[in-house]
Protein backbone atom coordinates (compact mmCIF):
# COMPACT_ATOMS: atom_id res chain seq x y z
CA UNK A 1 0.00 0.00 0.00
CA UNK A 2 1.58 3.27 -1.13
CA UNK A 3 1.22 6.22 1.21
CA UNK A 4 0.22 9.65 -0.15
CA UNK A 5 3.13 12.08 -0.37
CA UNK A 6 1.34 14.94 1.41
CA UNK A 7 0.30 12.95 4.47
CA UNK A 8 2.07 13.12 7.80
CA UNK A 9 4.20 10.02 8.20
CA UNK A 10 3.79 8.38 11.59
CA UNK A 11 5.64 5.29 12.68
CA UNK A 12 4.65 3.19 15.70
CA UNK A 13 7.49 1.13 17.17
CA UNK A 14 8.17 -0.83 20.31
CA UNK A 15 9.21 -4.27 21.50
CA UNK A 16 7.18 -7.38 20.79
CA UNK A 17 4.12 -7.54 23.03
CA UNK A 18 4.27 -3.91 24.14
CA UNK A 19 0.67 -3.25 23.09
CA UNK A 20 1.14 -1.32 19.83
CA UNK A 21 -1.64 -3.02 17.87
CA UNK A 22 -4.16 -2.84 20.70
CA UNK A 23 -3.38 0.83 21.32
CA UNK A 24 -3.71 1.73 17.64
CA UNK A 25 -6.98 -0.17 17.31
CA UNK A 26 -8.31 1.70 20.34
CA UNK A 27 -7.17 4.93 18.70
CA UNK A 28 -9.39 3.99 15.75
CA UNK A 29 -12.34 3.50 18.14
CA UNK A 30 -12.55 -0.23 17.42
CA UNK A 31 -15.38 -1.49 19.65
CA UNK A 32 -14.22 -5.06 20.29
CA UNK A 33 -11.21 -4.03 22.40
CA UNK A 34 -11.94 -5.16 25.95
CA UNK A 35 -10.51 -7.51 28.58
CA UNK A 36 -11.27 -10.52 26.34
CA UNK A 37 -9.32 -9.13 23.36
CA UNK A 38 -6.18 -11.08 22.52
CA UNK A 39 -4.15 -9.66 19.64
CA UNK A 40 -1.88 -11.68 17.41
CA UNK A 41 1.74 -10.43 17.40
CA UNK A 42 2.47 -8.31 14.35
CA UNK A 43 4.76 -10.03 11.90
CA UNK A 44 5.69 -7.36 9.39
CA UNK A 45 3.77 -4.10 9.35
CA UNK A 46 0.22 -2.86 9.82
CA UNK A 47 -1.28 0.34 8.47
CA UNK A 48 -3.87 2.14 10.58
CA UNK A 49 -6.07 5.02 9.41
CA UNK A 50 -6.75 7.71 11.99
CA UNK A 51 -9.76 9.85 11.05
CA UNK A 52 -10.20 13.21 12.75
CA UNK A 53 -11.45 16.76 12.27
CA UNK A 54 -8.80 19.43 11.92
CA UNK A 55 -8.99 22.81 13.66
CA UNK A 56 -11.15 24.13 10.81
CA UNK A 57 -13.58 21.21 11.17
CA UNK A 58 -12.44 19.55 7.94
CA UNK A 59 -12.23 15.75 7.85
CA UNK A 60 -8.66 14.49 7.78
CA UNK A 61 -6.97 11.10 7.74
CA UNK A 62 -3.56 10.16 9.03
CA UNK A 63 -1.80 6.91 8.19
CA UNK A 64 0.13 5.24 10.99
CA UNK A 65 2.50 2.41 10.14
CA UNK A 66 3.09 -0.08 12.92
CA UNK A 67 6.24 -2.14 12.53
CA UNK A 68 6.33 -5.32 14.59
CA UNK A 69 8.76 -5.69 17.46
CA UNK A 70 10.26 -8.79 15.85
CA UNK A 71 11.37 -6.52 13.01
CA UNK A 72 13.46 -4.21 15.24
CA UNK A 73 16.63 -4.88 13.21
CA UNK A 74 14.76 -3.54 10.15
CA UNK A 75 13.10 -0.49 11.73
CA UNK A 76 15.62 1.86 10.14
CA UNK A 77 14.28 0.84 6.71
CA UNK A 78 11.04 2.70 7.55
CA UNK A 79 12.45 6.02 8.80
CA UNK A 80 12.64 8.09 5.62
CA UNK A 81 10.29 11.07 5.82
CA UNK A 82 8.89 10.11 9.23
CA UNK A 83 7.56 13.14 11.11
CA UNK A 84 6.27 11.46 14.26
CA UNK A 85 7.34 8.38 16.19
CA UNK A 86 5.07 6.67 18.70
CA UNK A 87 7.32 4.44 20.79
CA UNK A 88 5.39 2.00 22.99
CA UNK A 89 6.80 0.42 26.16
CA UNK A 90 4.99 -2.18 28.29
CA UNK A 91 5.32 -1.02 31.93
CA UNK A 92 4.01 -4.33 33.24
CA UNK A 93 7.04 -6.18 31.82
CA UNK A 94 10.09 -4.91 33.70
CA UNK A 95 12.28 -7.59 32.11
CA UNK A 96 11.69 -6.03 28.69
CA UNK A 97 12.17 -2.36 29.58
CA UNK A 98 15.98 -2.26 29.41
CA UNK A 99 15.92 -3.77 25.93
CA UNK A 100 13.17 -1.30 24.98
CA UNK A 101 15.40 1.54 26.18
CA UNK A 102 18.31 0.37 24.02
CA UNK A 103 16.02 0.18 20.98
CA UNK A 104 14.60 3.64 21.73
CA UNK A 105 18.04 5.21 22.09
CA UNK A 106 19.12 3.57 18.82
CA UNK A 107 16.12 5.09 17.02
CA UNK A 108 16.67 8.52 18.60
CA UNK A 109 20.29 8.54 17.40
CA UNK A 110 19.12 8.17 13.81
CA UNK A 111 19.98 11.37 11.83
CA UNK A 112 16.82 11.05 9.69
CA UNK A 113 14.70 11.64 12.81
CA UNK A 114 16.29 14.87 14.08
CA UNK A 115 13.07 16.81 13.36
CA UNK A 116 10.59 14.06 14.20
CA UNK A 117 8.22 14.49 17.13
CA UNK A 118 8.77 11.68 19.65
CA UNK A 119 5.86 10.34 21.69
CA UNK A 120 6.87 7.80 24.34
CA UNK A 121 3.84 5.81 25.45
CA UNK A 122 3.90 3.73 28.62
CA UNK A 123 1.24 1.06 28.10
CA UNK A 124 -0.50 -1.51 30.23
CA UNK A 125 -0.59 0.79 33.25
CA UNK A 126 -3.87 -0.94 34.12
CA UNK A 127 -1.93 -4.21 34.45
CA UNK A 128 0.98 -2.72 36.40
CA UNK A 129 1.20 -1.44 39.93
CA UNK A 130 2.00 2.25 40.34
CA UNK A 131 5.60 1.75 41.46
CA UNK A 132 6.33 -0.07 38.18
CA UNK A 133 5.85 3.24 36.35
CA UNK A 134 8.66 4.80 38.39
CA UNK A 135 10.88 1.77 37.87
CA UNK A 136 10.16 1.88 34.14
CA UNK A 137 11.12 5.56 33.97
CA UNK A 138 14.36 4.83 35.83
CA UNK A 139 15.18 1.91 33.53
CA UNK A 140 14.45 4.05 30.48
CA UNK A 141 16.71 6.75 31.98
CA UNK A 142 14.04 9.30 31.09
CA UNK A 143 15.59 12.18 33.06
CA UNK A 144 18.91 11.70 31.24
CA UNK A 145 17.15 11.27 27.91
CA UNK A 146 15.29 14.56 28.32
CA UNK A 147 18.54 16.36 29.20
CA UNK A 148 20.45 14.96 26.23
CA UNK A 149 17.73 14.94 23.60
CA UNK A 150 17.80 18.10 21.54
CA UNK A 151 14.04 18.16 21.02
CA UNK A 152 10.97 17.67 23.17
CA UNK A 153 9.85 14.21 24.13
CA UNK A 154 6.19 13.75 25.02
CA UNK A 155 5.52 11.11 27.69
CA UNK A 156 2.04 9.59 27.81
CA UNK A 157 0.51 6.76 29.79
CA UNK A 158 -2.13 4.72 27.98
CA UNK A 159 -4.15 1.55 28.06
CA UNK A 160 -5.29 0.05 24.79
CA UNK A 161 -7.83 -2.06 26.68
CA UNK A 162 -9.30 0.55 29.03
CA UNK A 163 -8.77 3.50 26.69
CA UNK A 164 -6.97 5.63 29.28
CA UNK A 165 -4.61 8.11 27.59
CA UNK A 166 -5.95 7.39 24.10
CA UNK A 167 -7.55 10.85 23.67
CA UNK A 168 -4.26 12.46 24.67
CA UNK A 169 -2.39 10.32 22.14
CA UNK A 170 -4.86 11.32 19.43
CA UNK A 171 -4.34 14.98 20.30
CA UNK A 172 -0.56 14.57 20.23
CA UNK A 173 -0.74 12.96 16.80
CA UNK A 174 -3.23 15.35 15.20
CA UNK A 175 -2.40 18.59 17.04
CA UNK A 176 -6.16 19.00 17.50
CA UNK A 177 -7.63 19.22 21.03
CA UNK A 178 -9.84 16.23 21.76
CA UNK A 179 -12.95 16.73 23.88
CA UNK A 180 -13.39 13.90 26.39
CA UNK A 181 -16.76 13.02 27.89
UniProtKB/TrEMBL annotation:
PROSITE patterns: ARF. Pfam families: Arf. Transmembrane segments: none annotated. Keywords: GTP-binding, Nucleotide-binding. It comes from the Eukaryota. PANTHER family: ADP-RIBOSYLATION FACTOR-LIKE PROTEIN 16. This is ADP-ribosylation factor-like protein 16. It comes from Plutella xylostella (Diamondback moth).
Amino acid sequence: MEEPENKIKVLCLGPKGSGKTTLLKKLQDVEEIDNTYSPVPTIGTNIFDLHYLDKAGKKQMMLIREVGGEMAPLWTNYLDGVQKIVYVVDTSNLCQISAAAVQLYTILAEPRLTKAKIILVLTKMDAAYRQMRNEALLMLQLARLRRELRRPLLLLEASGVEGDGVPELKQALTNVPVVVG
